Amino acid sequence: MVAKNSHSLLARILGTACVAALAAACSPPVMPMPDASGNDGSTTPDATAEGGSDAAVGPRVCDMANIVNLATAGMRMGSTTRYTGSTAMAASNQMIAVPSGCLQGGMAIRQVAHTYTVQNMGFLRVSTANMGTPSGMGGHDTVVWVQDRCDTRGTMSLGCNDDTGGLASTVTSNRLVMPGQMVTIVVATLAMAAGGPGLPYELSVDEVPPVMMGAGCDPTGPNLCAANLTCVGSGQIGTCVANGSLGAACRTGNMCDGTLQCIEVGTDVFRCLNRAPMGGACNSVTLCPDTADCLPDGMRPGNTQDGRCRERNAEGGLCGGDIMGTCAMGTTCTGDAMRVGTCARAVAMGAACDPTGVSTTCAMGTTCAAAMMGYTCQANGSVAGSACVDPAPRCSGMGLTCSTMMGAGVCRTTAAMAGAMCDPRFGTITCAGMEACSANGDGAGTCRASVAEGMADNNAPAMAEAARALPLVIRGALPMSDVDCFNVTVPANSGVVAQLSDGAGGCPASADSVLFLLDSMGRVVGSNDDSNNLCSYLDTRDNTFTRMLPAGTYAVCVRNYGAMGTIPAYTLSVQTAAPRG
Length: 581
Fold this sequence. Notes:
The chain is mostly beta strands. Helix content is 4%, strand content 38%. The radius of gyration is 28 Å and the shape is elongated.
């Protein structure tokens, strides 16, 4: 049975990162079929329709004399073949139809076809992003695609790309190619109309071996896993797992393991996922019923990666915007006709409340803040975590200061001593000196001494710093595209709690981080992105993969989301915790 997630949290609440992780391997584009006249693009089309004369059309791209045989014309070194040519002498119109969805605009004119014979099983990575392709102002704007032969009648596209970076194009075949298989590679010039000039290009063809079961892969790129495997993970770190398993592609016949369901997560992209019951726990691989959304769990303030399935228009469910219906009796929609909100219940001072604001709203003049027993609505300015008041003093409670001089702010207390309780998620109680707030996994934290990151390279699990006992608080930094990995020793049947922050309950400046937990074989156990604003947080309640781990050495790795930008300074806290349900 194939299920379709028509009202996915992945678009409304989790953001696009989860969707991208699930749908990293796209379905191959379909080549157009011949029209009634039999014109498939490999023969010269009507020159008048293209706005040129027969002379302007030029030689047909698939004529044998015009095809470049890379076996003889190219230069092979190792697994890479290179060829330098030009599109200047090719036909000045678009002769072969470009695979659907490839071009962002314009036409692929002056097409040059190349034949390539595969030597080793794997994937082909074809690119014009090479020194011999002019770039910059007036550079060569290329389009590259691969198909099974130089004739669109019945051919199958193996992938197409227009501009992976700058004007150059790189495409990786969307399926394995076999030794002895001959494919056609087309390089074309992108132009707004027929008749534009051609330019030189340097083409490279790499044979990329498939990634085997259990090995690392990049979920954001093409699926380079071996046959019947899918790259599953988060950010740019994943593991090749068998089709039919959690998060992987469905097996033939839309089959999945156990109780997993084959669910459409993108156009014609299906993955094996869990389907949670109404009110059940949900995340990027456990989706809610079609009439519900995955919203933050009230016990996990700030967490939008994992939560509970909440029925629309019921208490704590979505409302407003394009959500039809009205909120249940006793609740009011926090959104309006233009904005989606939630159906929240008004709560008086002193009553229990939801710190996420999803299911409750505190009475005017009060804030949902931490108390001795959970969260209650407390007077503004009276306790850490409550809103500041005007006029001064903005915070009246003993030892409290406001986070801002004017405008909206939060009351907080500072200089908690070593071993004292602190707030790892909102910074309402911070630590003194070089102490940092280490998350305990239950919404609270403890002030612990921190140590600096080592000087040696640690940008891969195999290069992680020597295993350390837990709890551990490390201060580090991430230059552009860097990854920091730290080995930790975990006793049997323990959970792992890890949090990235600025050490005071906030996020590092300009940081959007992703945390990964890997086992001793380098396989991704799980990951998290954006649990607390743009900070990452793994714990035993929201992230089930951190529970009941076998004893051993694990690596905790941190990187900037999408490998973009830098994180000048961060604090990573890691510790074990008793498993939670």
